[in-house]
Amino acid sequence: MESILLTNCKVYDGKELLDGEKHILIEDGKIAKIAAEKPSVSENLKIYNLKGLIVCPGFIDIHAHLRDPGQEWREDILSGARAAARGGYTTIVAMPNTDPPVDNPFLVRYVIEKGRSSGGARVLPAGTVSKNREGCVMAEMGKMVEEGAVFFTDDGSPVKNSSLLQKALLYSSHLDVRIMEHPEDNELSKGGQVNYGWCSSISGLKGNPPSSEVVDIKKCVALAKETGGAIHFTHVSTKEGIEEIKRAKSEGLPITCDVTPHHLTLDETMVVKSGFDATYKVNPPLRNKEDVEALWQAIADGVVDAIATDHAPYHMDEKDLPFQEAAFGIASLECAIAAVLNEWSSRGKICPLERLLSLWTSNPAGLLPRQWSDLGVIKEGAPADLTVLDLDKNKQVKVEEWASKARLTPWEDASLKGWPVMTFLEGKVLFCDTDRRC
Amino acid sequence: MEWKHKNLIDLDCWEKEEILHLIDQAGNMEDLLNRPIKKVPALRGKLIVNLFFEPSTRTRVSFELAEKMLSADVVNWSASGSSTAKGETLRDTAWTLESMGADAIVVRHGAVGAASYLQRKLKHAAVFNAGDGAHAHPTQALLDIYTASKHYSSLEGLRIAIVGDIVHSRVARSNMIGFRTMGCDVVVSGPKTLMPPELDYYGVRYFKDPREAVKGANIVYLLRIQRERQEQGLFPSLDEYFKLFGADEELISLAEKDALIMHPGPINRRVEIDSLVADGPQSVILEQVRSGVAVRMALLYLCLGGAR
Fold first, then answer.
1. Buried (b) or exposed (e) across B80-110, using 16+ Cβ within 10 A?
2. How many domains is chain A built from?
3. Is 60 exceeded by the pLDDT of residue B308?
4. What does the DSSP 8-state code read for residue A261?
């Protein structure tokens, strides 16, 4: 395998930004050396001069919908994994709400194998908590873990039956795989199209209230406390939801959470201002400005454990419709990191850069089973999964250039500052949007 | 005045002067309607399509009459028995109609955002919103403002009480915007389950007690209560609704002496309104219907015809 040398780069190693410039030698898919002095090298070497850029552990997205098997007109594992690599990710977790759902070891294996041949990011599967994602009977979690499942979730919906969730928490306690909950009370959110409050009042659309999220979080926290099982709340969108999680964490409960790029950068007013453009239609809905503020504050306070895309691609024909008829979901893999970096700068860098970077690297890696814990760090001997950031790069989002099958995104034509420009998976260049080859 | 609007999606982008100008024009149109020969050639050669995806009688007929009085060519396209029933999307239907040469499309659709969606998708044709889901019904608001204006020289400072199912009502939303733009003091009442959670945007006050809302009002506006709301559990029974919020003579007696009684129709007698009120001397419900044609003529004329 070809060796690669990255020279003159800043390095974020998963904990901190290292002082000075470094040189990173990649051999056999692993990080062979990190040195302050440029190592003497043989001729058979690809060299990239990354002066001014930041080399990070490969970014991890723990929540992406790849729609495969069964809904390949929306996305498939190949297009999704390539989209992820182009978006700056080296590892993504594929959600199991496919058709059929990934609720058995064979489909877990299918997702892994198809991901391996994708030429894109590493694809790790999540399996469902319940068979057929129906909330009645526990899925074969143990067998799915043996085949490589890294989360259990009925995402798309919450685990519908509290008693099943309680049992799943107890049963999975020896498996080292977390349960990821999509926090929503389906009765409270029933029919909801936009945030309850300002947006529902003005649009005439049914509101999905913050209480829907909060009620489910409270319920799950109680179950986590009772069972000792760990719960990860995904796409937390409300101030009140964050407050519940903060409280649970301060009690020392095994609770973690992620927030999405769209809930960090968009709010309910955009639904109205755009004349009800359905690209802004998503579940949970875009909330109000105070909620967006609270999510950023939660990042600054260390309450948030990861930023995850909830990349939810649809075919154009399912999205390009009047708002009330369109599907729920925002596709973002190929601009999510830029959208967040851009917002972080325009908000006056509300938290240190290292904190933000940890939410794409070491922190989500820590939520995966132990065998993947090396993914979030840069150290000698670790696999060379790397993401290179150019914080000064300005680029316009052009969805027509995407590898994803999605053709609509709320950031279309937006000029964003701060982009991933290279990704490496086990030493192999997956994506290169920079002219730094020497 | 120079008329800048080509479309009408909602009244939130209209100035008071523009509404006043339209009302003036509607007055002229109503004079026309009273002549023995009603038709004028203002929109001769213009093709207008009435694209109705929801059943509607009064709004569709009212638009059609307005179009015909102005000599436009009119095509009625209803969802049943058309390509929509064969699965054609709104986008394709609109593009098809535009390709056939439509100058304007009047659209009624059950989905919020349908009219603005069409406006984004069409290159040339103007779009007039005849109701999109529970969002907006701007021509209803215009004809209500016109009707009220015939009874009051100015609407500035008048109190209008809107009572009923605000949260599901496109009529209420457009009227709250419209009457506020005209400088009215708008108050609303109804069960809290039928109220939007946020009213500050509209500059409107909520009263739990309809008697408090109606007290001293110059206009009492009742909204249709759909039976399905009771089935959805938003209030226990139609009978109880009438008892607590229905407009009977006792409630109306709290308003100003000559207060106008308005309703967008069709009315549910003994649900939101008692027959003695609906058919009483203060009721202008049928006048509203009559105003609809003149107001829509003025709108089409200003946006498509002479003024442009």
1. eeeebeeeeebbebbeebbeeebbbbbbbbe
2. 1
3. no
4. H
Q: Look up residue A110 and give its DSSP letter.
A: H
Specify burial of residue B70 (Cβ count, 10 A radius: 0-12, 13-18, 19+).
buried
Nearest to A283 by CA among A412, A184, A165, A407: A184
Is the Cβ–Cβ distance between B58 and B289 less than 8 Å? yes
Of A310, A374, A385, A390, the catalytic one is A310
Q: What's the token pair of residue B55?
A: 């059943």
- Provide the 10 A C-beta neighbour count for residue A36: 10
Interface mutation target, options A208, A324, A408, chain B, most CBs of B under 10 Å: A324
Among B92, B121, B198, pick the best mutation site for testing chain A contact (most A Cβ within 10 A). B198
Confidence at residue B82, expressed as pLDDT on a 0 to 100 scale = 58
Report yes or no: A154 and A126 within 8 Å, Cβ to Cβ. no
Using CA atoms of B33, B34, B38, B43 in order, give the dihedral in degrees to the nearest 10: -30
| Enclosing domain of residue A73 | 58-372
Output phi, psi for B71, to 5 deg. Answer: 70, 20
Q: Do the domain assignments include residue A249?
A: yes
Report the top-level CATH class of B138-287.
alpha beta
Render pLDDT for B89-120 as a digit per residue (tens, 0 to 9). Answer: 889 988 999 999 999 999 999 999 999 999 99
A280 touches chain B (CB under 8 A): no
- Contact B41/A at CB under 8 A: no
Supply the pLDDT for residue B78: 78
With a cut of 60, say whether residue B307 has pLDDT above it.
no
Per-residue pLDDT of B246-284, as tens digits, reads 999 999 999 999 999 999 999 999 999 999 999 999 999
pLDDT in tens, A183-212: 999 999 999 999 999 999 999 999 999 999
- What CATH number is attached to the domain comprising A251? 3.20.20.140
pLDDT digits (tens, 9 = 90+) for A2-56: 899 999 999 999 999 999 999 999 999 999 999 999 887 777 789 999 999 999 9
Query: Can you say how many angstroms the Cα of residue B179 is from the centroid of all Cα atoms in its chain?
Result: 12
CA atoms within 13 A on the CB side of A33: 14
The CATH architecture to which B11-136+289-304 belongs is 3-Layer(aba) Sandwich (3.40)
The string over B192-223, giving b where at least 16 C-beta atoms fall within 10 Å of a residue's C-beta and e elsewhere, is eebbbebbeebebeebeebeebbbebbbbbbb
- A310 included as an active-site residue: yes
Which residues does chain A have within 8 Å of residue B114's beta carbon, measured at their own beta carbons?
322, 324
ipTM of the complex: 0.92
Does residue A425 form part of some domain?
A: no
> Which residues belong to CATH 3.40.50.1370 in chain B?
11-136+289-304, 138-287
Angle, vertex CA B10, rays to CA B190 and CA B53, nearest 5: 85
Please indicate, yes or no, if residue A38 is contained in any of the structural domains: no
The DSSP secondary structure of B9-48, one letter per residue, reads S-GGG--HHHHHHHHHHHHHHHHHHTSSS----TTTT-EE
**Beta carbons of A424 and A58 less than 8 angstroms apart:** yes
Q: Which of B141, B138, B203, B135 is nearest to B169 (CA)?
A: B135
User: Which among B116, B133, B198 has CB closest to A198?
Assistant: B198
User: Which distant-in-sequence residues (6+ apart) come within 8 Å of A104 by Cβ?
Assistant: A127, A139, A140, A143, A144
Contact of B108 with chain A, judged by CB distance below 8 Å, is answered with: no
Q: Is residue A165 part of a domain?
A: yes
